[in-house]
Amino acid sequence: MCCVGLTAHLIMMDDASMAKTVITKDDIDGSPNAETVTFSFDGRSFEIDLSKKSRTALEKALKPYIDAGRPVGARSTRGSGGSSSGGRGRGRRAASVDLAAVRAWAAENGIAVSDRGRISGSVLEQYQAAQ
Fold first, then answer.
1. Out of 4.10.320, 3.30.70, 2.60.40, 2.40.160, which CATH number does the structure's domain 70-75+90-131 have?
2. pLDDT along the chain (131 residues), means of 10
3. 47-64 as b/e, with b when 16 or more CB fall inside 10 Å?
4. Which of 62, 95, 101, 127 sits between 20 and 30 A of 45, alpha carbons compared?
């Protein structure tokens, strides 16, 4: 009986360790390998999955409006010991800075930034200083 239970356990582990591939498609043209882009307009936030080509087209279309617009939100008060907004710490900076705009600015200025994930504090500071 011992061996039957062991065999079943090994089969279950083998099934659980199988790799799965998820391919995200571009919401505009259906091309593969898209990444999620978040943007806001008129007080509403949106997410869309875009390929590099579609993301570049979106950034190009929005650039004149972003360039003419004003950033919204308070600047970071790093080292002050807390936030006046009562936030829990995580995501405070993201709420005051449009990360898509930071990535677009970084790309235009030759600064390497990943398409997704955290943007380093030094890049955010350079972006805010340039505004």
1. 4.10.320
2. 42 60 89 90 89 95 91 56 42 65 91 86 89 86
3. ebbbbeebbeebbeebee
4. 127
